[in-house]
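Each record in this resource describes a single protein on a pair of labelled lines. With that in mind, the following record should read easily:

===
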Amino acid sequence: MQGIAITLGVSILVIVTAQYLLNKILNIMLISKLVPFIQKWEGGLSRDPNDTAGSNPAPWAYKGLTGWHTNKGITYTTFISNASKLGYAPTKENFFNMPDELWLKILKGAYVAAFPVDKIAHLPRIQAVIITWAWGSGQSGAERYLANFQREEMGIVDSNITPEEIVKNFKKKINPVNESIWFEKLCKRRLEDMRKMRTWSAHGRGWTNRINDFRNTFI
């Protein structure tokens, strides 16, 4: 009996260790793909009047112009609201320069951390979907869109699905075997939701190209 117990204990330790290492590898793969993808599509400074972020631009001028509201995809609102929590100075220099280390800190602290995606480390495509939806629509927007998807496509009956429950529901329904199917459904749904946005006429072509590139990057 003692020998069986030892064998069982060793087997459990091997499985746990293997799962831990696999999760670490998958998370490295996620960030290694996600960071260059977002940076590729976001570009640099923007004062696009068709962007909803334009309602709260930075108060500083840059190269003689005002109205700058976004840098590398980070809106001024996000930049200001996360400064104290993430430990950086909300200065003109930091916003306009947006060093890579600061950009990554905001990505991880404001968007990756918005949902407990570490609970689905074995589903890197679904992690990428959740993070990019939070990036594009904010935590509350992503929560609303993902909750509606789960109600309509997964049969979840709940009037108030929290970020924790969203991740939990995905974990129950999706596994590495069927992940690509649900990934495609989520990409399709994201584009459908975008078509309903009032700025679709201005940004629709770019959004479509971005979703297609997202598919190709994470498929």
About this structure: The chain has two domains: 45-110, 115-218.
